[in-house]
Amino acid sequence: MTTADITVNHLTARRRPRRRSRRVPSWLKWALAVGTPTLLLAAWWVASARSSSTFFPPLEEILTRFQQLWLFAHFPTDVVPSLANLAGGYALAVVVGIVLGFVLALVRPLRWLLEPIIHFVRSIPPVALVPIFITMIGFGNDMRITSIALAATFPTLIATMDGIRSVDGTLKDVSVVYRLTRTEKFTQVYLPAAAPQIFAGLQVSLQIAFIVMIASEMLGASTGIGALTLTAQQSFMIADMWAGVLLLGVLGFVINKLFDLVKARILAWYFGAKEAQRDS
Amino acid sequence: MDHATPVPRLAVDRLCKSYGSGPQAKEIIRDLSFEVAAGEVVCIVGPSGVGKTTLLKCITGLQPLTSGEARIDGQPIDGPPEQMALVFQDYHRSLMPWLTVRKNIRLPLRHLRLGRAEENQRIDEAIEAVGLSHATELYPWQLSGGMQQRVAIARGLAYRPEILIMDEPFASVDAQTRFELEDLCLRIREQFGMTILVVTHDIDEAVYLSDRVVVLGSKPAHVVEVVTVNLPRERDQITTRATKAFVDERTRVLSLIKNPHRQEMADA
């Protein structure tokens, strides 16, 4: 019986009563999350109220211009096309990144062939690629979508490759022993197992896509949030420029929040398992 | 007792396994042979680190053999055979954490194309057998170790293999659960007519479960002796373990493990 006894002791040792970490109450978190930005905005409002500086107009003026420009005069003509480019380029990057990452992780010769090139291209700052695409494709939306897609592919691609290659050996053995079909293996085992890493890549890709969206509009374009903001700066309409920057901030924030929502939903099992591990 | 059927369900025949080659080769298993008849429960016991898991991986086609062969119904195994299911030692890593208990059990059944009704029936039966009916919609990480192990066993059961192989299946569950799972193991042999091969390091467990016990010696792994357990087929955790016959068998197996060489010399 000794073996069984040892096992029992070992088990109880691992299941000590939960040590409750000193958690910050959620109401306090919320208060901080809402309170701090509100406080900063109020401080900006008060401090800039009587500003006569050309470069730092009163917040009130900026918000007025914000409302006049973006709600909703330029919304269909500039915001929607920008976001459409972002969505198109990002979607392309996600599909190419995941599919190519999968293939490269599983086909070793192909990985040896392409990996150096991938690492070279991805070390070029994404924004630097925009001029190349302008000369090749021109100033249209195609150029913007291509730039966004190319720059945003790499983080997803590399994360997917790493994720697939680090799938647990036991899970692979399980799929072999139970003779899962190739499709089942890929969609039911490899993809979910790599999902936490893939999502980390997707998040970086999204941030890069957002940067390149703006950058691609600041070069030679006349429409889009980036173009409008840059034009405002060049024609000394400083409040308009600030309004543009503010919009970018809001958009970036909202897009990231949406991403987090999707991630929390799809990776619910992963965060749940991590929590369970921490509590035990 | 005569176990000899013309062709054993599972035969391991002079199996050798080494890693690497040339002078650096590490010999894990040397000339290992044993047979398991249909409907038999056989346990493999041996010191830890002897290469029991490697042996199972060779038998289940997960790793190539260096020489010799393993056969199912006379057919050499050269890849994971469809008549076999394996319950892995590290069960918490062998379950998909993104699938609920029910979906974990369902996953290997999909490609069998059983039809929805048959599929559900098998899953329900397996879940019922391991006593997890209340937990089907939970995720593995919401369960205790013993419950996770039952899910892994249920997955094997629902697959309805002819041969169920388990690698130290009850190593990390508490004593109570261990007894329940051992009895479960004997019950499914009767219920589904499965042939069961269990690797364990617990001698009591091996004697309690088995028709025969394969005692392994180490460095490299080899068969010291195959012990036929002289106990009635019906076993009971309390009464069987208290019998003199049980204690005798246990002593026999234990002395073989402690002193493999004496036995080998006696054989020679």
Please outline what is shown here:
The complex is a heterodimer of chains A (280) and B (268). By secondary structure, chain A is mainly α.
Describe, in plain words, how this protein is organized in 3D:
- The complex is a heterodimer of chains A (280) and B (268).
- Chain A is an all-alpha fold.
- Chain A has a domain at 77-267: MetI-like (MetI-like fold, Orthogonal Bundle).
- Chain A is 82% helix and 0% strand.
- Chain A has twelve helices and no strands.
- In chain A, helix 4 (75-106) runs antiparallel to helix 5 and helix 4 (75-106) packs across helix 9 (182-218).
- In chain A, 31% of the residues are buried.
- Mean pLDDT of chain A is 86; it is low at 1-17.
- By secondary structure, chain B is an alpha/beta fold.
- Chain B has a domain at 10-83 and 161-267: 3-Layer(aba) Sandwich (Rossmann fold).
- Chain B has helices spanning 52-59, 91-94, 101-106, 116-130, 145-158, 175-192, 203-209, 239-242, 244-258, 260-267, and strands at 10-19, 26-36, 41-45, 67-72, 75-76, 84-87, 163-167, 195-200, 212-217, 222-228.
- In chain B, strand 4 (67-72) and strand 5 form a beta hairpin.
- In chain B, helix 4 (116-130) packs antiparallel against helix 5 and helix 7 packs across helix 9 (244-258).
- The longest helix of chain B is centred in the last third of the chain and has 18 residues, at 175-192.
- Chain B is globular, with a radius of gyration of 19 Å.
- The mean pLDDT of chain B is 84.
- At the A-B interface, helix 1, helix 8, helix 9 and helix 12 of A face strand 6 of B.
Distance between the termini of chain A: 26 Å
Give me the number of helical elements of chain A. 12
Indicate the CATH class of one domain in chain A. Mainly Alpha
Beta-strand residue percentage of chain A? under 5%
Nearest-integer average pLDDT of chain A: 86
Mean pLDDT of chain B: 84
Q: Which fold name is given in CATH as the topology of one domain in chain A?
A: MetI-like fold
User: How is the biggest beta sheet of chain A arranged?
Assistant: none
CATH class of one domain in chain B reads: Alpha Beta
Q: Mind telling me the C-alpha Rg of chain A?
A: 25 Å
Tell me the number of strands of chain A.
0
Provide the structure class of chain A.
mainly alpha
SSE topology string of chain B: EEEHEEEHHHHEHEHEEHHH
